[in-house]
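Q: Please design a sequence for this.
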């Protein structure tokens, strides 16, 4: 009887010696995968949060400029003039620049630099993105479809 028990123990020990490195490798692989998943999720949440705050700032700037500068320009124009009370392309560019300036003042140079880094923009990419978002927000305030969800 002792021989059967010792043979069983010996077999279990041999199996353990074989399986231990495999199990160790599997646990290590799982830990690496879990770590990568957590890192990706954290990065995605940070990018998403940064993008949401940036777009929210754009909308705030558009509303602010729309209530102040656009009203001043429209009030200064004569409705009976050739263009009527409509804003010219040049004036629209001024309004867009005013929105960009507001966004820059809200975020500051360091904040915009961090946003560009987190969102993966290089050079003037962030300013171009902000310009597109301003135009989208202006279209939304006018009730026009923007083409983007």
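A: Design:
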């Amino acid at each position: 009887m002792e021989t059967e028990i010792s043979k069983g123990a010996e077999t279990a020990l041999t199996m353990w010696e074989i399986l231990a490195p495999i199990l160790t490798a599997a646990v290590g692989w799982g830990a690496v995968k879990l770590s990568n998943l957590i890192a990706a999720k954290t990065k995605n949440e940070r990018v998403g949060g940064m993008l949401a705050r940036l777009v929210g700032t754009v909308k705030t700037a558009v509303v602010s400029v729309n209530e102040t500068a656009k009203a001043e320009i429209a009030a200064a124009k004569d409705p009976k003039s050739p263009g009527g009370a409509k804003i010219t392309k040049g004036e629209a560019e001024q309004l867009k620049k005013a929105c960009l300036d507001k966004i820059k003042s809200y975020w500051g140079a360091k904040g915009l630099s961090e946003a560009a880094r987190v969102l993966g923009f290089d050079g003037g990419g962030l300013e171009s993105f902000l310009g597109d978002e301003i135009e989208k927000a202006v279209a939304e305030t006018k009730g026009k479809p923007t083409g983007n969800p």
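Q: Thanks. Anything notable?
A: Residues 100 and 127 are 8 Å apart (CA to CA). Residues 2-142 form one domain.
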